[in-house]
């Protein structure tokens, strides 16, 4: 569905070099701190910036070095964190624009979702709350039978109830659109843990880790050890360590091994936040 191979973009103080694969029928999350390269990756995929080298394949066709053609754009639904509809538009105005742009636009679906998300029909977007604007962008993205959704921070600004509604909408969309795929980023780790099949961790423009979400949540863990315990630890399955005031934190992808062989260690279940912190701030085992 979407494949990036060493997609490079260079700025004076930042360099992107990303390889990713989003299989058909999957939801893939891209996580990382602010400035890690998430939005730059999305913009490179959409040709909003020009990558210097590498390969970008969308729907099996190489797109690096050329503009996306209309048929490719029609098959994509996009939400970008730093863009949206003109402030003077209303929901009916957006409907007319979407209908004119996309042959597959589903008017009744769009209106139904707007009503379910409590979006006002008579207000201009400039008078919408941040959450309302976010909802409208996602609804527009899923209302023209897109095969690939590119969603950069789609739940930003939403309360927990609205976020859950958006995530349910994405789940339902994949169930209805057989073979459709989603690439999504979010600062809210719980959102990605609940919806993504796999995750990529990006830091300073580089992919540090790619893992199935189920594996991350079941097999990854953070060990907390005193200095003495750490010195005697079998570090075969430890790939990041961080020294703390009390001793050491260690990231492993073999939780059960340390539960069985290191009973004195405090073993905490891994999470996306733990993964980001340890992979970014931790050091490789020497």
Brief description of this entry?
It is built from eleven helices and 14 strands. It has helices at 38-45, 70-74, 91-101, 107-116, 130-141, 160-176, 189-195, 213-219, 227-231, 255-261, 272-281; strands at 2-11, 14-22, 27-31, 53-58, 61-62, 76-79, 148-152, 181-185, 198-203, 206-212, 221-225, 238-243, 248-252, 266-269. A hairpin with a 2-residue loop joins strand 9 and strand 10.
Number of strands: 14
Outline the low-pLDDT stretches.
Answer: none
DSSP helix fraction: 25-40%
CA-atom Rg in angstroms: 21 Å
| Average residue-wise pLDDT | 90
Helix-strand pattern, N to C? EEEHEEHEHHHEHEHEEHEHEEHEH
In terms of DSSP E residues, the strand content is 25-35%
Number of helices, counting only DSSP H or I runs of 4 residues or more: 11
Basic shape? elongated
Strand order of the largest sheet: 6-7-8-3-9-10
Based on secondary structure, the structural category is alpha/beta
Distance between the termini: 39 Å
Largest sheet: 6 strands, mixed
